Amino acid sequence: MRCDCNGRSRYCLRDAGGLHCVDCQGHFEGRHCERCKDGFHQQGTLPSCTPCRCNPTGAVSTTCDSRGRCSCKDGVTGDKCDRCPDGPIGATGCKQSRQPRQDSGNCFCYGHSSRCSAKTGYSVHNITSTFASGPDGWRAATARGDTPPDVHFRWSPKHQDLEVISKNSLPVYLYAPARYLGNRLLSYGQNFSFSLRLDRGVRHPSVSDVILEGNGLKVTASLGELRSIVPCGKKVHYSFRLDEQPSSRWRPQISSAQFHSLLQNLTAIKIRVTFGENGELPVSYFPFRYFLRPGSFLLIQTLLFHNSFYTSYFINK
After folding, report:
1. Comparing C-alpha atoms, which of 101, 94, 127 is closest to residue 116?
2. Distance (Å, whole) CA 313 – CA 163
3. Residues 121-134, mean pLDDT to the nearest whole number
4. Are 119 and 125 a contacting pair, CB within 8 Å?
5. CA nearest neighbour of 38 among 80, 70, 83, 9
6. Weakest mean pLDDT among 11-25, 121-135, 281-295
7. Does the reported pTM lie above 0.85?
8. Which cysteine pairs are joined by S-S bonds (predicted)?
9. How far apart are CA 8 and CA 5, in angstroms?
């Protein structure tokens, strides 16, 4: 068997799955030296990984996205999480403001405002999964909810991520736990975001890579153009806005009232994590892997703005 290390190592060891690379160069790791180590990212086609350099005080973790942007704690901004609203971050972080909390980006207010803050008595609520102590209620199954015996799902305590391995021809999805479901009306117009990485193989997106279900309604979205290729070995960030606008890419396109109805009783969130081509899977060890990482790779971040949903509470900034 050939030692396939993407040109980043000349040494392999044999195990039950065949050959795996050792001594990967350029801060790479993985069975085929295909991904950057935690705390590093790859810039374009550079032959080595670049340090993330996340600010340890302001960042959630040492990881960053493909552009080197770190995931920041509440109230902290900047690509490296080194800025506060009033200037550079201090040794103890950002000072808490007595003013109502305001999101650093735009929010959805039906065109009446481009900024919003939490109404008195309400607060912004983030729903996240860090996988620091387990799978956090996530599970892997087919679109019908079945888990075939040749689909393997595990949590890695070392990397604090989830791994899905399948040799089944049916697409496998990750199902969100109950705390992401139920009445999510206040999430209307906000972003639903996650990051994934395909370990090996060349696979094309489908029309049903992301699925939302609720109140007898279902909308789906693709992870890219249907003729495109899902990137292999790279963490890719995806974000979908929770509304009926064409730019949000949900299909079929439903009315605003229907989308509100779906969110009022959200019963399922499914994210596709295996990609076969024409129903055929390559014969190789662990043909499909997806990793969900914490920190800058929060699985889902939903911002709930009370006053951006109810028109009687618009606050222009």
Report:
1. 101
2. 43
3. 71
4. no
5. 70
6. 281-295
7. no
8. 24-33, 52-64, 72-81
9. 6
Asked which of 11-15, 32-36, 221-225 is least confident by mean pLDDT, the reply is: 221-225
Between CA 264 and CA 188 the distance in angstroms is 10
- Answer for the pair 61, 69: CB distance below 8 angstroms, yes or no: no
Give me the domains of the chain, ranges plus CATH numbers: 139-297 (2.60.120)
Distance in angstroms (rounded) separating the CA atoms of residues 66 and 63: 10
Cα–Cα distance for residue pair 128/33, rounded to 1 Å: 29
DSSP letter, residue 77: B
pLDDT tens-digit map of 275-285: 754 333 222 22
Secondary structure of residue 312 in the 3-state scheme:
helix
What is the token pair recorded at 29?
């790791």
Q: Determine the pLDDT at residue 274.
A: 80
CB half-sphere exposure, 284, CA atoms < 13 A: 17
Using omega within 30 degrees of 0 as the cis cutoff, is the peptide bond preceding 252 cis?
yes
Beta strands in 111-159 (DSSP E): 139-142, 151-156
* Cα 160 to Cα 33, 107, 293, 304, distances in angstroms: 19, 31, 7, 27
* CA–CA distance, 51 with 91 (Å, rounded to integer): 21
Which residues touch 255 (CB under 8 Å, ≥6 apart)?
Answer: 244
Structure tokens at 46: 């550079």
Backbone angles phi, psi at 24, to 5 degrees: -65, 140
Taking the C-alpha atoms of residue 20 and residue 22, their distance in angstroms, rounded to an integer, is 7
Q: Tokens standing for 281?
A: 């899977």
